[in-house]
Here is the input.
Amino acid sequence: MTTALVTGATAGIGAAFAHRLARDRHDLVLVARDRDALRRRAAELHDRHGVEVDVLRADLATDDGIAAVEERLADHARPVGLLVNNAGFGLRGRYLKAPVADELRMLKVHCEAVLRLTSAAAVPMQERGRGGVVNVASVAAFLPRGTYGASKAWVVQFTEGAARDLAGSGVRLMALCPGFVRTEFHGRAGMRTDSIPGWMWLDADRVVDAALRDLGRGRTVSIPDLRYRALMGAARLVPRSALGGISSRAGRKYGPKRGGTPDGA
Ligand SMILES: NC(=O)c1ccc[n+]([C@@H]2O[C@H](COP(=O)([O-])OP(=O)(O)OC[C@H]3O[C@@H](n4cnc5c(N)ncnc54)[C@H](OP(=O)(O)O)[C@@H]3O)[C@@H](O)[C@H]2O)c1
Here is the structure.
């Protein structure tokens, strides 16, 4: 089995990818910032599934962090057959509420890191004539939703374009666009989620199962779950101005807990 490298592998969707890939007998390289969480996750996956699990502590909001992962992906002696660019985060507050420095950090993690890591992985994959890259975007890519939505729209556009350019090379690229998934994402950003109806929540393991199925089918964009495919289909028919109003409200309530004043959205 090949080695898979997963960024943001200590929690949420990344942890679900790591579990599923270990179960499928892939060796793993897990990337995140929290070294202890990485070690715990690696030990658990090795003990449970008997696969080799390396950890790589890297902050993908920094040049050094991105460079360390690029170096690992370019290592011909230890080829990576599947890259999952999953690390990411949300920001508390609407436009002008979040500091520009935080928005830039988001672009670094969601866009620059994804571009550089995809490229570092795709070159040796192309030479070997096989490989896969999953870039985790969001349904927010299709909605007017601040820097977060814009960064995820970039991920989708970039991935579709690169997939087209590499068609026939044996390297598959796919953008994964989930809706709301129960993970640490919203809590970390200090977002309140009580206004999001239960039916809108997805399970991370199911999202990952759908993603790997779609990658196997050669899809370049994957929207897990029929409900979200229907919603995104309907969104194409709604005027953009109305869509902006709905989208800017959904899931954007902020609790008073983690600093700042709630903007109540
Ligand atoms: N949850 C949702 O509703 C949802 C919906 C659509 C798309 N997504 C996307 O799915 C991806 C994963 O989100 P999630 O919900 O699983 O979030 P999560 O539970 O908060 O996990 C985020 C993971 O990313 C890592 N990470 C964050 N910043 C990083 C950095 N600068 N460098 C390296 N690693 C970093 C975290 O580990 P450390 O803190 O240790 O670094 C953690 O392992 C993101 O790209 C997100 O935009 C999420």
User: Anything to note?
Assistant: Strands lie at 3-7, 27-32, 53-57, 80-85, 131-136, 171-176, 191-192, 221-222, 253-254. Residues 106 and 190 are 16 Å apart (CA to CA).
